[in-house]
Amino acid sequence: MRLIFAGTPEFARVALAQLQQAGFEIALVLTQPDRPAGRGLRLQPSAVKQQAELHGLAVAQPRSLRLDGRYPQDALAAQAAVQAVQADAVVVAAYGLMLPPWLLEATRWGCLNIHASLLPRWRGAAPIHRAIEAGDTQTGVTIMQMDAGLDTGALLLSQALPIAASDTTGSLHDRLAALGAKLMVQVLQRLPAGELRAVAQAEEGLCYARKVDKDEAWIDWAAGAQQVVRRIHAFNPAPGACSMLQGEAIKIWQAEVVPGAPPSGVEDGLILRADQAGVQVAAGPSVVNITELQRPGGRRLAASEFRRGFALLPQATFRMRTRP
What pTM does this model have? Predict the structure, then answer.
């Protein structure tokens, strides 16, 4: 089968590599334009572009695919490239651009999307973050026949994956990326033989995974230990959960709920204890044990190592950012 692949970040690169390994012909790769990154803000190619160039694949990087949008020349060039390769299907994984009707209808099998949730739960931009934040015990991958809506297309194949209490968006991302790549290979192998039936999404259980805003990363210690820990894990590795401590914005990467309650009347965010097990913090009616932290400009450190370079003052308290 001759394919066009549309994707941008590491999640998509895993799928592209698996399709290549499975022997599918990748006639064209669509990925987002290079973006400034790093301290020098140099233009950096996407993970998908790097994979494509490593294997000599044709790459197009339109700023938009809409013929009536801000960059019609980009869209026209992309349309010409798509038509020229005469592909059988378009595989989409975390591309980052809405697909217009001309692309949805450009190939025999249409556009097949790898989505990192069990649709219709967590349609939208941040399904992994929101599943962890909500305390879901499972998520999964859905392969979907795309239509004009936002993750509204018919379902072709899905598989569930458990979420552990210690999972972060980073750890879950890696497992879902591998699962998504495997399922897409299965779909492409079975679809021409008529072995798959597209099933319309149910309305029951529908919810949206809105894009993560950096302001959400500031920890509200009054929310309770369970919610605080979920958000810490949901925002690891990006944007990173934050809290002010002794005048510094500290990133908190790993934490756990510990049994017991703080003494009555203590302020939310107060450090109750710091030992080899971690830094224990009052959080509403419960307690959070922080096990990994990071100072601005520093490295991620286990709590015991962090404390050796950061002297905690008496009554030290984590606080939310104060706005000007």
Answer: 0.94
CA distance 252 to 74: 41
CA atoms of 64 and 148, how far apart (whole Å):
16
Burial of 80: CB neighbours in 10 Å, binned 0-12, 13-18, 19+: exposed
Token duo for residue 88: 């059988």
Strands 42-44 and 208-209: unpaired
Mean pLDDT of 59-68: 96
DSSP code of 226? H
Cα end-to-end span (Å), the chain: 57
Q: Confirm if 20 and 48 have CB atoms less than 8 A apart.
A: no
d(CA 68, CA 75) in angstroms, rounded, equals: 9
CATH of domain 2-209: 3.40.50.170
Question: What are the helix (H) ranges across the chain?
Answer: 10-21, 47-54, 72-85, 101-104, 127-133, 169-190, 225-234, 303-308
Which contacts of 73-82 are long-range, i.e. CB under 8 A and separated by 24 or more positions? 75/100, 78/30, 78/103, 79/103, 81/28, 82/4, 82/28, 82/106
Name which of 25, 103, 91, 88 is nearest 58 in CA terms: 25
Domain boundaries, the chain: 2-209, 214-308
CATH code for the part of the protein at 214-308 = 3.10.25.10
Distance CA 290, CA 275 (A): 11
Nearest Cα neighbor of 2 from 81, 108, 98 is 108
Cβ atoms of 232 and 129 within 8 Å: the answer is: no
Question: In this structure, how many other beta carbons lie within 10 angstroms of the beta carbon of residue 297?
Answer: 6
Decide if 207 contacts 231 (C-beta within 8 A).
no
Q: Please count the other Cβ atoms lying within 10 Å of the Cβ belonging to residue 55.
A: 11
Summarize pLDDT for 179-201 with one digit per residue, the tens.
999 999 999 999 999 999 999 99
Tokens found for residue 147: 């239509």
| Distance in angstroms (rounded) separating the CA atoms of residues 272 and 121 | 38
